[in-house]
Automatic annotation (TrEMBL), chain A:
Residues 205-439 form the SUF system FeS cluster assembly SufBD core domain. InterPro entries: Fe-S_cluster_assembly_SufBD, SUF_FeS_clus_asmbl_SufB, SUF_FeS_clus_asmbl_SufBD_core, SUF_FeS_clus_asmbl_SufBD_sf, SufBD_N. The lineage of its organism: Bacteria, Thermotogati, Deinococcota, Deinococci, Deinococcales. Residues 140-202 form the SUF system FeS cluster assembly SufBD N-terminal domain. This is Fe-S cluster assembly protein SufB. It comes from Deinococcus piscis. It comes from the Bacteria. Belongs to the iron-sulfur cluster assembly SufBD family.
Automatic annotation (TrEMBL), chain B:
InterPro entries: ABC_transporter-like_ATP-bd, ABC_transporter-like_CS, FeS-cluster_ATPase_SufC, P-loop_NTPase. PANTHER family: ABC TRANSPORTER I FAMILY MEMBER 6, CHLOROPLASTIC (PTHR43204:SF1). Gene3D superfamilies: P-loop containing nucleotide triphosphate hydrolases. Keywords: ATP-binding, Nucleotide-binding. The keyword Hydrolase does not apply. This is ABC transporter ATP-binding protein. The lineage of its organism: Bacteria, Thermotogati, Deinococcota, Deinococci, Deinococcales. Residues 5-247 form the ABC transporter domain. It comes from Deinococcus piscis. Belongs to the ABC transporter superfamily. Ycf16 family. PROSITE patterns: ABC_TRANSPORTER_1, ABC_TRANSPORTER_2. GO terms for molecular function: ATP binding.
Length: 468, 251
């Protein structure tokens, strides 16, 4: 593994900035074309309907303009990206079968260790493909399915086709379209009726090559009364040129089911992270997104809950941290289609050192969604004068008998708090770190302990030397 | 080494406004001195300057802790030398539990590589809570957030008991306390008294000094100590008010 010299100029604190030499089974030429799409489809030995789907999505992608309402995407050169890179090896069920340098990468990221200690199943994606996917036997016996998306398509063709692209169709937005055209990797999860998976499943995404794109596609189906928690983590080497990550996550939460999807996104600061995450929630089902955006150059991500039947509930807890050169344009969408549905959005952002964070959220209540309500709370913490935060709340209410609450605060770390903590013996940095940890505590406490610790650690790393 | 807190010819200002105009005080460990005087004459400024509040600029003089000048030190270095200020208005730190904070503050006093053990922490906590007649559940609350004035003051004393400072400065700890709270807070401070504890008790009222009997009393008017004496001086202030000391200042 090599340390990328240019990493230092991008982000000195980033600890995952190393990379492996490139050894790949397939590396498609740069840029997006019909040939590249066909190459991907062929490499995956897909049914014709999927190739047709991809090609249609490619047309949609080409016909849609770049969105201009959000973060600045002018630096993203889509012709310079490698859209498909297949690593050597295959999707293994044992770490022993993963190529040595790739395995070392994930060991260095602590994945096999976490798997042994605290997870029901683990997937690991390297460049465009899953290189490892395994579910502990006890869950397999209960009928839980946790596979790479490609294996899901092969082994459960009917289930797959019934739900694939129903929650996020390619027409949804330009980046959902590009993902639909070149998707590769991601997970397929199925939790049968009434099964409660009480420890998390996790998938880890790693980009290694320069200028590469990662377009994973995840489809999760939680049957009636079932429960599960899925965690996603991501890192990449720090390069001076840009990489592109555009995932699509589709989740179906059936009646009375409960599902939580947690992300701790720690991409290097040269990654454009433009992701579409959406859940369709049925009667009395509960969907919770816990979304931590710490890394990337630009993130545009608004986890969504479509509350489709009576009693459905959606929650989005979002933390963003933006440092120099970063723009976190993150938020949430709660759309009420049915009566007595409820939503809750808590967004907390920390900006420092000319970093920029935006809360962008949509709450929509359709006519007929009587007695529905959503609460939005967004709090921004600015660590210095250069930092910037904005709030873009979109609220559309078509139903009289419904309510939306919105509260927003912007605060700075105040000198009195720092003095108070320092007067008890904490250094200035420790004091600022503690205040920030307190600020995100309402969200960190929702994460499993190890992840809350990791989140705090990453934030502390970003905080080093940031006050003074 | 002399174990004492010495304030020598201390001048300090906020912006261009001089507030302290040459304070001289010596407080040996083992003694608590009361500092009294009318509002706006520099008592709280003295407390803030000793703790290292960057709002205040020291223009002249020294503050020595056991012979070491602390004025160039960061507030946390001063704290680690054993200086503790019980704030008049403790600030709220949302999301940080008292328990977590106490542990971090104790840890900050340890040498590199040394850890606060659970037994050490928990043992001390139990005894401090007992002294302050407080239920253990209080330490799961966030630091000062949503606490009443009285609870905040009690929390200052809890921190004091846990951190065992050598020099305490109590900045109007009695303000806003009812009689019960006053008794509990005073009991907390008295439980720390002994040959290793010195400090200043800043107050307007005799009331607190009935519970924490000072070894000496100093009166500050217009940024200077205009009168010093024994506990009887505080009683005289209580009976006669401040008019006569104001005359001392202009004399």
């Amino acid at each position: 593994m090599t340390v990328n010299p240019e990493a230092a100029s991008i982000n000195t604190e980033y600890e995952y900035g190393w990379s492996n030499p490139e050894r790949y089974a397939i590396k498609a030429p740069k840029g997006l074309s019909r040939e590249v799409v066909e190459m991907i489809s062929k490499a995956k030995d897909e049914p014709q309907w999927m190739l047709d789907f991809r090609l249609k999505a490619l047309d949609i992608f080409l016909s849609k303009p770049m969105p201009e309402w959000g973060a600045d995407l002018s630096g993203l050169n889509l012709d310079e990206i490698y859209y498909y890179i297949k690593p050597e090896g295959f999707n293994a069920r044992s770490w022993d079968d993963v190529p040595e340098d790739v395995k070392q990468t994930f060991e260095r990221l602590g994945i096999p260790e976490a798997e042994r200690a605290a997870l029901a199943g683990v997937g690991a994606q390297y460049e465009s493909e899953m290189v490892y996917h395994n579910l502990k036997e006890e869950w397999e016996k209960l009928g839980v399915v946790f596979l790479s998306i490609e294996d899901g398509m092969r082994e459960y063709p009917e289930l797959f086709r019934e739900y694939f692209a129903t929650v996020v169709p390619p027409e949804d937005n330009k980046f959902a379209a590009v993902n639909s055209a070149v998707w590769s990797g991601g997970s397929f999860v199925y939790v049968p009726k009434g099964v409660k998976v009480d420890i998390p499943l996790q998938t880890y995404f790693r980009i290694n090559a320069e200028n590469s794109g990662q377009f994973e596609r995840t489809l999760i189906i939680i049957e009636e009364g079932a429960q599960a928690h899925y965690i996603e983590g991501c890192t990449a080497p720090a390069y001076s040129s840009d990489s592109f990550h555009s995932g699509v996550i589709e989740i179906i939460v059936k009646e009375g089911a409960r599902f939580r999807y947690s992300t701790i996104q720690n991409w290097s600061h040269n990654v454009y992270n433009l992701v579409t995450q959406r859940a369709a929630v049925y009667g009395n089902g509960v969907m919770e997104w816990v979304d931590g955006n710490l890394g990337s150059k630009v993130t545009m991500k608004y986890p969504a809950c479509y509350l489709l039947e009576e009693g459905a509930r959606g929650e989005v807890l979002s933390i963003a941290m933006a440092s120099r050169g970063q723009h976190q344009d993150a938020g949430a969408k709660i759309v009420h289609f049915a009566p007595h549905t409820s939503g809750n959005i808590v967004s907390k952002s920390i900006s420092k050192d000319a970093g920029r964070s935006s809360y962008r959220g949509l709450v929509k209540i359709y006519e007929g969604a009587r007695g529905s309500k959503t609460n939005v709370e967004c709090d921004a913490l600015l660590l210095d004068e250069e930092a910037r935060t904005d709030t873009y709340p979109y609220i559309e209410i078509e139903e009289r008998d419904a309510s939306v609450g919105h509260e927003a605060t912007v605060s700075k770390i105040n000198d009195e708090q720092i003095l108070y903590l320092q007067s008890r013996g904490l250094s200035e940095d420790e004091a600022a770190g503690l205040i920030v940890r307190g600020f995100i505590e309402p969200i960190a406490k929702e994460l499993p302990l190890e992840y809350a610790v990791e989140l705090n650690r990453l934030i502390e790393l970003e905080m080093e030397g940031s006050v003074g | 080494m002399t174990h004492q807190l010495e304030i020598k010819n201390l001048h300090a200002s906020v912006g261009d406004q001089p507030i302290l105009k040459g304070i001289n005080l010596t407080i040996p460990r083992g003694e608590l001195h009361a500092v009294m005087g009318p509002n706006g004459n520099g008592k709280s400024t003295l407390a803030k300057v000793i703790v290292g509040d960057p709002e205040y600029t020291v223009t002249e003089g020294e503050v020595l802790v056991d012979g070491q000048n602390i004025l160039e030190m960061e507030p946390d270095e001063r704290a680690r030398l054993g200086v503790f200020l019980a704030f008049q208005y403790p600030v709220e730190i949302p999301g940080v539990t008292i328990a977590n904070f106490l542990r971090l503050a104790m840890q900050a006093r340890k040498e590199e590589g040394e850890e606060v053990t659970f037994t050490e922490f928990y043992g001390k906590l139990q005894s401090a809570l007992k002294t302050l007649e407080w239920d253990e559940s209080i330490v799961e609350r966030y630091l000062n957030e949503g606490m009443s004035g009285g609870e905040k003051k009690r929390n200052e004393i809890l921190q004091m008991l846990m951190l065992e400072p050598n020099y305490i400065i109590m900045d109007e700890t009695d303000s806003g306390l009812d009689v019960d709270a006053l008794r509990i807070v005073s009991h907390g401070v008295n439980s720390l008294r002994g040959p290793n504890l010195g400090g200043l008790i800043i107050t307007h009222y005799q009331r607190l000094l009935d519970y924490i009997v000072p070894d000496k009393v100093h009166i500050i008017v217009d940024g200077r100590v205009v009168e010093s004496g024994g506990p009887e001086l505080a009683k005289r202030l209580d009976a006669e008010g401040y008019d006569w000391v104001k005359e001392l200042a202009t004399a």
